[in-house]
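To whoever is on call:

I kicked off a structure prediction for a single chain this morning and the downstream step that reads the tokens threw a length-mismatch warning. I double-checked the sequence; it's 402 residues and nothing unusual in it as far as I can see. Pasting both halves so you can look.
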Amino acid sequence: MLIFEIIRVALQAIGANKMRSLLTMLGIVIGVGAVITMVALGNGAQQAVESQLEALGTNVLTVRPGQGWHRGVRGGDERMYVTDAYAVEQSADAIRLAAPEMVTNAQVEFGRSNASMRVTGTTESFAELNNYAAEYGRFFTAAEDAGRRRVAVLGGAVPEMFSSTPMDMLGKSISIRNVTFEVVGVLEAKGGSGWFNQDERIFIPIQTAQFRIMGTDRIGSFNVLVADGYSQTAAMAQIEQVMRREHKLRVGVENDFYVQDRAELMGTMQEATQTFTFLLAGIAAVSLLVGGIGIMNIMLVSVTERTREIGIRMAMGATRRQVLTQFLLEALVLCLVGGLVGIGLGFGASKTLAELANWTTAVSPRAVGMAVVFSAVVGLFFGAWPARRAAGLDPIEALRYE
């Protein structure tokens, strides 16, 4: 029996039971589709993080409060204030701008609509420092901050959250925790999706936030823009010097704050999203194994049903190796066809999630290639035992089988 004859017989056997073959491939289809979709979600999340951090600028450092010791246990953030940011901006030559931030989640109302979103109290330097530009209106001014004016600037995605448009909201009033604010600007959208959408924010003057919304003078962090001609290492050293002086830390006492550059933050978030991608792919790969077990089960049933046919082929001169190859090919074809259909399913699911859920997805050619290879491996691995069983049948006993 020639190889082409073996392939023809294998395909005929698959085609003879179309419904069973389709149901057998279903596990592989779902498994491959799930792997492609999950990897696309992980890659999309990683790309979204990278693009958003790049859009914010890489010559920016972030200063955050460290954790303090309380009764021998480390926990709770140390205190950090607006004055810390101002001191760094004024005393450190390597720093051109500093923008403190106070962040809270608050209920925001506009007309008859309301939504819970992130409200950030900051200074007028925030826009320049983070490469934000107003698409409509303007950013608030230092005078409005000093006067504790109730003005607000919306992120690019906020009007859509209220089923409105930027022009409709510009100059109108919104309510943040029952305090009325006038919308003076809407920022250009930087892009984002899911849990890390930086356009779903509202910005208000930091002094207004302190006295009218949050009721505290503590800040969660402040960003600084490194001046031209200075390295980030030099800037971090100057920040540490000024902050230790402001916090009156003696020699030998460790810092109660830490400085983080965005390159480091990007690396950390890339590692997190990569781990997330591997986790999702691993969970999805379980369904591939389940599909492989299903194929092995059906192939064993097929061997039992076709015992007499196998005996006839052996009696007509087919070798055990040819019988083995035939059943391996059947399992391989089932897995490969199921894998190709699963790839199409994964593409479709990724596109659907991107359009309906507004999630960033990116189908990786590497993931597609790995899915095809893994499908073939599953077919060969789980088809090996049924194929060996078929090849090991005694021709005389097989001919007697009813």
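Update from on-call: the warning came from a stale cache, not from the record. Cleared it. Sanity check on the structure: The longest strand covers residues 95-110.
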